[in-house]
Design a protein that fits this description.
The chain is α+β, with helices and mostly antiparallel strands. About 30% of the residues lie in helices and about 35% in strands. The protein has helices at about 10-25, 225-230, 235-270, 275-290, 310-330; strands at about 30, 35-40, 45-50, 55-60, 65-70, 75, 85, 95-100, 110-115, 120-130, 130-135, 140, 145-155, 160-165, 170, 175-185, 185-195, 200-210, 215-225.
């Protein structure tokens, strides 16, 4: 009967080893399982275990050993200056954080934590590239109802970025703009054109992003609708235009009044041609008389002509001329 039921002496040992492997696996954890970072940023993964029998922890990047940690002595020297590890002081388990500094595109791949002779866990690392975004041209001016074209380019990205348009912080439907892309040296350039019908003055934004970027990059321009100044009365543009027109009108009127007053004053102050001629003749005769009489002039003398205040002024001028003649004769 015993020959009909053979007993395998190793079956219980194999079962125990299988159970131990599952137990150890449950006591080891690598997080996060997937990590996405931007190029030049640090990548951080944490390997932890509650299994007390481990002695050596090895970190591998794309199958290549980059760091070794001893349970007894801690972090061992590494030839790669961009990798290091820090032990967590608060974790109840043996927990080490692996840090890959200044990540590059070639670092993308598999990151493995290997507890020598016990178990290993692998996570995926993705490295993305942040490029630039630009709306071509300056701020635009358009009449109401006019069609306005905007062009945006996002260059130097990996993977291909998501490009979107916004008008006054509201997303534009994808059906209202087109997108084209090209790849050069594993970097993507995306171009998009948006056509808007000018309805009111707006801020137009073009946004580009990848999953590792917390906030999209944005480029903005201003669209100003000219017809608003003439038609819309819900703001202060019309009152301001009215006030400006009235001010200009008043200034012009004031300038005209000042011109008229100045002209009238100038006209009254300047003698007429007839008066000027009479003055010249009077002065000439007076000078001749003064020379004949040795500078003595009869103050009572008056020739025919006007006798108003203008002639008083002329008499005073005559005296000044006589003084000048007398001075020369002496």
């Amino acid at each position: 009967i015993s020959s009909l039921n053979p007993v395998c002496p190793h079956s219980s040992q194999i079962t125990n080893l299988h159970l131990d492997s599952h137990t150890i696996g449950a006591q080891m954890k690598l997080s996060p399982e997937t990590l996405t970072v931007l190029r030049k940023e640090d990548a951080r993964l944490t390997c932890s275990t509650s299994y007390p029998e481990w002695t050596i922890m090895v970190w591998l990047l794309n199958g290549e050993v980059v760091l070794t940690i001893s349970k007894e002595t801690g972090l061992l020297p590494s030839i790669n200056p961009n990798v290091t590890a820090k032990k967590s002081p608060v974790s109840r388990e043996d927990s080490w954080m692996f840090v890959l500094k200044n990540t590059e595109r070639h670092n993308q791949g598999q990151v493995t934590c290997d507890l020598q002779g016990i178990d290993r866990k692998t996570a995926s690392l993705f490295v993305q590239e942040k490029g630039s975004v630009k709306v071509f041209g300056d701020d635009k001016l358009a009449f109401k109802g006019q069609s306005v074209l905007f062009e945006c380019q996002a260059a130097g990205w990996f993977p291909q970025p998501i490009l979107q348009w916004q008008v006054n912080d509201k997303k534009v439907s994808q059906g209202e703009y087109n997108i084209s892309s090209e790849s050069r040296k594993s970097l993507f350039t995306v171009t998009s054109n948006l056509s808007l019908t000018a309805a009111k003055s707006s801020h137009v934004d073009c946004l580009a992003s990848v999953s590792a970027l917390p906030t999209p990059l944005k480029s903005s321009v201003r669209l100003t609708v000219v017809a608003e100044v003439l038609q819309e009365g819900d703001d202060c543009t019309v009152p301001l235009a009215l006030m400006a027109s009235l001010s200009a009108l008043l200034l012009l009127l004031l300038l005209c009044i000042c011109t008229v007053l100045w002209y009238r004053q100038r006209r009254h102050a300047k003698p007429s041609p007839q008066e000027a001629l009479w003055f010249d003749q009077s002065v000439t005769r007076t000078i001749s008389v003064a020379e004949a009489t040795g500078g003595k002039v009869n103050p009572g003398y008056a020739s025919e002509g006007p006798t108003d205040a203008v002639y008083n002024e002329l008499i005073m001028e005559t005296h000044r001329q006589m003084d000048c003649v007398s001075f020369h004769k002496v």
